[in-house]
Amino acid sequence: MSHTAHIPSHRKPRQRASKSALRAGVAGGVLSTIAVAGAAGPAQAEPVTQTIEMPTITSGFSTAVAASAQATQQVALDLETQADEDAAAEKAAKTAKKAHAEAVRKAEAKKKAEAAAKARAEAEAKERAERASRTSERTTLSASSGSSDSGSSASAPSSSSSNVSGSAASIVAFAKAQVGDAYVPGGTGPNSWDCSGLTQAAYRTAGIDLPRVSQSQSTFGTQVSLDNLQPGDILYWGSAGSAYHVAIYIGGGEFVGAQNSSTGTVQRSLDYDRPTGAVRVL
After folding, report:
1. What is the pLDDT, as a whole number, of residue 233?
2. Contact status, residue 224 vs residue 214, Cβ threshold 8 Å
3. Same structural domain, 138 and 161
4. What secondary structure letter does DSSP report for 211?
């Protein structure tokens, strides 16, 4: 037995005769065709011409483009309108804010004015109450001082300022000339006074220097009874040495004094605000 007998054969199986014949026929036909073509000689190549038709823009496309342009323009107009509206709204807001601030300012000013008027009214009412209280106190003190002279008259002397002469006349004339001037605390003239500032200025016309304040003026000179007053005497309200108000007696039962901020400098009867006492300097 051969040494290769046990190895299987790898040869391809033989093809059928019919398939071989077919392939041979096809090959022969192809070769024949090539041979005929070669005998006929080289063929003339004909140029190839081809017309390429470009697409044309139809009317429908033109309409679409026009519509798109119109839409773009409309969007631009809408944006411009919106910008104008926003600017107008911003301007209106600023105007409203300014008007509100002005209204608040006016309201605050009105409130302050009302508060000031109220405070002024309260101050005047308080001043009137204090004056009434002082009047009551002066009446009591006057009654006490008058009890030591039971034979004297309770009424003020009736001497007239027209009979005044000398230094007293100068003092009285100056005091009367200031009637109508304003009352200002600490005022010493020439157009506004407080009570002691007026008496000091009046006495200066006679060459006499009075102390500046009411308390000192109420003890500067000789104490005299209210029933024995002479023009030029200094009237005081309160106790001697602690007086809170002074004025000048001008005769005829009247005095001139810088009373308060409501009345200013006035000429009044002693009965208007009866003094507590008086001193004579002349």
Report:
1. 98
2. no
3. no
4. -
Q: How far is 145 from 150, CA to CA, in rounded Å?
A: 10
Q: Work out how many domains the chain is built from and give that number.
A: 2
| DSSP 8-state class, residue 42 | P
DSSP state of 244: S
* Same domain, residue pair 103 and 190: no
Do 138 and 247 lie in one domain? The reply is no
Helix pair angle (166-177, 195-204), 10° resolution: 140
Q: Please tell me whether residues 130 and 178 are part of one structural domain.
A: no
Structural domain includes residue 181: yes
Q: Is the peptide bond before 190 cis (omega within 30 degrees of 0)?
A: yes
**The pLDDT value given to residue 72:** 87
Predicted local confidence at residue 123, as pLDDT? 60
Instruction: Write phi, then psi, for 236 (nearest 5 degrees).
Output: -135, 155
Same-domain status, 162 and 273: yes
- Domain assignment present for residue 235? The answer is yes
Look up the CATH number of the domain holding residue 211.
Answer: 3.90.1720.10
Q: Tokens 């071989």, residue? A: 20
Residue range of the domain that includes 95: 74-144
> What pLDDT, on the 0 to 100 scale, is given for residue 252?
95
Query: C-alpha angle 56/59/64, rounded to 5°?
Result: 110
- Same domain membership, residue 187 and residue 104: no
Q: What pLDDT is attached to residue 231?
A: 97
| Mean pLDDT (10-residue bins), the chain, 282 residues | 52 53 50 48 53 58 78 87 88 89 85 73 62 52 43 42 76 96 95 96 95 96 96 97 97 96 96 95 92
Q: Give the predicted TM-score (pTM) of the model.
A: 0.46
Residue 267: per-residue pLDDT: 97
Joined tokens for residue 10 = 């790898």
The reply to whether 167 and 274 lie within a common domain is yes
Radius of gyration of the chain (CA): 65
Structure tokens at 69: 């342009």
